[in-house]
Amino acid sequence: MVSVPDSSNTAALGFVRERNKMGKPGRFEHGLIRNHYVGRTFIQPGIHSREIKVRSKYNVVRGVLQDRPMILVDDSIVRGTTAKMLIKLVREADPKEIHLHISSPPITNPCFYGMDFPTKRQLLTHMFGESDNSPEDLEKIREYIGVDSLTYLSMQGLLNSVPQFENEACSYCTACFSGDYPIPVTDATTDKEEND
Q: Which of 50, 51, 62, 119 is found 20 to 30 A from 20 (Cα to Cα)?
């Protein structure tokens, strides 16, 4: 089990623990080393810039990955360009297989609360379907990214993984996964998306 550091370390450790409880032995290994001086890659302004950032942000540990099947855990896929470039980089270490596990549901809706994906057409899920997360759409995403298998955490699995509060004011925003925005999206915001 290898995580995309650092945001996925905790998810990968939890995944290994749960697999071990089920009698499926596995262990967490550092197959990718992150350069902490390179910032977020998916928000870079162009694909060439994102590719350069990915190559300078991650180094593969060939001895951990070579000739072995691997499960790679990442926190999310937004546009898919970073994931695709990262898989290309990991493939250079010659693993037998790459199984990508995403510790969130597919991102199907824009975030109007500060993340840098303000329109649906920028999201990978919209490149390959209408975001109904059908098996056919997910298969297209798997092929595009270049992995042997692709698994997302379900919405219920995500909600089960975090503390639940009886006070409704402490609920979690799931708008980018569900389209249910806690504050109504204004016409100006949706007009911006249609015009982008």
A: 62
